[in-house]
Amino acid sequence: MIGLRRVSPDEFTAELDAVLDVYTAAMLPPADQITGRKAIMRNHAAHTGFTCLFAERADGRPVGVAYGFHGEPGQWWHDIVRHALAERNGEASARGWLGDALELAEIHVHPDYQGKGVGRAMVTGLCEDRRERTAVLSTRDQATAARHLYRSVGFVDLLTRFVFPGGYEHYAIVGATLPLPDSAGRSDRPAGSAGSAR
Fold first, then answer.
1. Cross-strand pairs, 108
2. How many C-beta atoms lie closer than 10 Å to residue 51's C-beta?
3. Quick count: other Cβ atoms within 10 Å of Cβ 158?
4. Gap between the Cα atoms of 155 and 68, Å rounded
5. Which domains does the chain carry?
6. Widest pairwise Cα distance in the chain
7. What is the pLDDT of residues 153-191, one digit of tens each?
8. Which DSSP string do the residues of 28-44 spell out, in sequence order?
């Protein structure tokens, strides 16, 4: 049985090795990127409005992690995406989507636990009871299970075939207005769900 547990920024940073285990299993990043990713995650925990959910087995081992925070000028992802949205869709669009947004930074489920509603529960739980107007995230611009999940809970494409500076992969930037239409009365959450992240 998998349950969701909200964790504090301090607990998140204390559990970064377990978080990275889930991230590595889900994303299969090159080994030389792990140290940098750990530093980025540690920095994210200090952002305003940081919220995190662990999906845990009965023994307390995390098999999923999702987190986000309030997006603000001066944050790398926020500034890059806001500029691209303004350039492609106009300043009003950029302001509307990113002016008061929950930015879902990381959402990962260990492959052994994918397809069981864990990702959906984490996404909807992170977005529940937030005061922001929107939620936004980036995901690989491919026909993946993640893209399907985000669409199914109300996210729409804001940018497609987007390449971050210094990168080469195509990403989709997606957004949803809050509260998510999916967040009310879901019955497919893992047991013990506290509710349900880029």
1. 65
2. 24
3. 23
4. 15
5. 3-183 (3.40.630.30)
6. 49
7. 999 999 999 999 999 999 999 999 999 985 544 434 333
8. ---GGGHHHHHHHHHHH
